[in-house]
Design brief:
There is one protein chain. The protein is α+β, with helices and mostly antiparallel strands. Strand 3 (about 60-65) and strand 4 (about 70-75) form a beta hairpin. The chain has four helices and six strands. It has helices at about 20-25, 25-60, 95-120, 140-145, and strands spanning about 5, 10-15, 60-65, 70-75, 80-85, 160. It is rod-shaped, with a radius of gyration of 30 Å.
């Protein structure tokens, strides 16, 4: 063997760099760009999901019943974390009335938390801009949270807070 090879009408010695025009493959280049874009988007989504997880771990909702007798607080999974009876009004109520107030406040707080979770996660379910090959996906929120989580509240809005700030939140006109 002489140490040279015949290629594309020219002679190349062993150890010489390959012809630059022969090494550029438009398909490989496009695939590499798409892969780099996808990995960058994946990194951004991963960072976003991590931030959302931290936010949701700390989230609480506080709701008062319409009769302003009961205040219910729920955590990020809709679990009841606190229940307060306000101004001793409950002492004059029948057990049925009190139970209805407790259920109303707890249900509204849970449904408010469900809407908050849906709103927070929604951006991660949609197709990614600039990456048409990454489609979004549908989540059956009603299956996860029940139909109440999809309905808008009919009463006063729920308050979002945290356990450490709960005592700092006052209704208008109350001290």
């Amino acid at each position: 063997m002489s140490g040279t090879e015949e290629r594309n009408g020219g002679t190349r010695r062993q150890g010489d760099a390959p012809d630059a025009t022969a090494s550029v493959n438009p398909f490989t280049e496009e695939l590499g760009k798409r892969l780099a874009d996808t990995l960058a988007e994946l990194d951004a989504v991963t960072a976003g999901v991590t931030k959302v997880q931290e936010e949701l771990r700390q989230a609480t909702y506080v709701v008062r019943s319409r009769d302003r007798v009961v205040e219910a607080t729920v955590g990020p999974q809709g679990q009841l974390t606190d229940l307060r009876f306000l101004d001793n009004k409950y002492r004059t109520m029948s057990p049925t009335e009190l139970a209805a107030s407790v259920l109303e406040a707890a249900t509204q707080a849970r449904d408010s938390m469900a809407r908050h979770v849906m709103k927070t996660i929604q951006p991660f379910t949609e197709p990614r801009p600039g990456l048409p090959y990454l489609e979004g996906f549908d989540i059956d929120w009603a299956d996860i949270f029940g139909p109440g989580g999809l309905e808008e509240p009919s009463g006063p809005p729920a308050r979002q807070g945290s356990a450490s700030l709960r005592d700092e939140i006052h209704e208008d006109g109350e001290e």
